Automatic annotation (TrEMBL):
Belongs to the metallo-dependent hydrolases superfamily. DHOase family. Class II DHOase subfamily. Its cofactor is Zn(2+). It is an enzyme of class 3 (hydrolase). It comes from Apodospora peruviana. The lineage of its organism: Eukaryota, Fungi, Dikarya, Ascomycota, Pezizomycotina. This is dihydroorotase.
Length: 359
């Protein structure tokens, strides 16, 4: 049996998005698609180039530019964990309403060249975050290292001991293991208390390693993995109980960075259609037997995963706005294009779920 033909749900919160530099051509193209996707709140990643967001002043300036692009969205801002950040800056971040600090292991992904080599030098900053209730958002991968046998396929599993150390050392620190891609990661997140959660993207609920090795538009970090890993993610999404929620890691790159010479940029662009991609992935999972039946996909599970669990974790108000998702309501564009950029969305050209705002 398929899912219902339509769902009325609270407005969604996407707790992991890349909107790129603002003002800038990609931000101008993608920020207006947040609301169209049925989303009213986003957690914005700080890995801008040529300079990441490392201070409260920079984060607030960035936020103001995003608000100018769409004032109706709530932007939760973050800092990039960097040696220039002090415990006082963390306290100022709390006062300014900044929600999290993102740690990128150096060399693990796009714009991680200013990232973390070891967490040891950040002890005082992490203590201040624990005290202030500022979230640590982890890109949970170690960089590839052939000598040590690390490839994109085991980079997340190899990071999990670091997560365990952080939880042990900072037991009250709120931590998000971003974009979980493995059964190991799901199990590890589940083993901790309620201050440790995971986000799951829309695309990792449908992709496998074969899908990105054949198509650059499906390539991201962490990369999609095995059928067993995907099954664990699907089950975590519908049986989350607050432990897992949507963070799309929608990562727009201009078509030239995906298809040009040299290495392709990591990132799958899902922003405008993310909720529909999730529903499609759940239906495909039911058809394959990765989910036992459509009865597992309750409205409560969808509301929680799309909206209420993420807001509860970040201690922000629940949305009183409602959306309706309708099967077959729209077709994914071949690309989003302006004078300055062209971005190919995930599942381009396929029919997906439509989104309407009811209030
Ligand atoms: O695929 C990814 N793209 N993973 C990341 O961690 C960063 C992101 C980006 O910024 O493009
Ligand atoms: Zn990301």
């Amino acid at each position: 049996m398929p899912l219902q033909d339509s769902y009325e749900l609270p407005a969604a919160a996407d707790m992991h998005v890349h909107l790129r530099n603002a003002p800038g051509p990609i931000a101008e193209l993608v920020t207006p698609t947040i609301r169209k996707a049925g989303v009213d709140t986003v957690f914005v990643m700080p890995n801008l180039a040529p300079k990441p967001v490392v201070s409260v002043a920079e984060a607030l300036e960035y936020k103001a530019h995003l608000q100018a692009l769409d004032p109706s969205v709530t932007y939760l801002m973050s800092l990039y964990l960097h040696s220039s950040i002090t415990p006082d800056e963390i306290r100022a971040a709390k006062t300014a309403g900044i929600a999290g600090v993102k740690a990128y292991p150096r060399g693990a992904t796009t714009n991680s060249q200013w990232g973390v080599v070891s967490f040891d030098p950040f002890h005082d900053v992490l203590k201040a975050m624990e005290e202030e209730g500022i979230v640590l958002n982890l890109h949970g991968e170690v960089p590839s290292n052939p000598t040590e046998g690390v490839t994109v396929m085991n980079a997340e599993s190899r990071f999990l001991p670091t997560l365990r150390n952080l939880v042990e050392k900072y037991p009250r620190l709120k931590i998000v293991l971003e974009h979980c891609t493995t059964a190991d990661a799901v199990e590890t997140v589940r083993s901790f208390g309620e201050n440790v959660v995971g986000t799951i993207t829309a695309h990792h609920l449908s992709l496998l390693v074969d899908d990105w090795s054949a198509n650059v538009n499906n390539y991201c970090k962490p990369s999609a993995k095995s059928p067993e890993d995907r099954r664990a993610l699907l089950n975590a999404a519908v049986h989350s109980n607050g432990k897992f929620f949507l963070g799309t890691d929608s990562a727009p790159h201009d078509i030239s960075a995906k298809k040009g010479k040299g290495n392709t940029a990591a990132g799958v662009f899902t922003q405008p259609y993310a909720l529909g991609y999730v529903l499609t992935a759940l239906e495909e999972a039911i058809a394959r037997g990765d989910l036992a039946s459509e009865k597992e996909v309750t409205e409560a599970a969808l509301s929680g995963f799309f909206s209420t669990y993420g807001r509860a974790f970040y201690a922000i108000p629940q949305s009183i706005k409602k959306i309706r998702l309708t099967r077959g309501g729209q077709v994914v564009a071949d690309s989003l294009k302006s004078d300055g950029a062209e971005i190919v969305p995930f599942r381009a050209g396929e029919t997906t779920w439509g989104v309407e705002w009811l209030s």
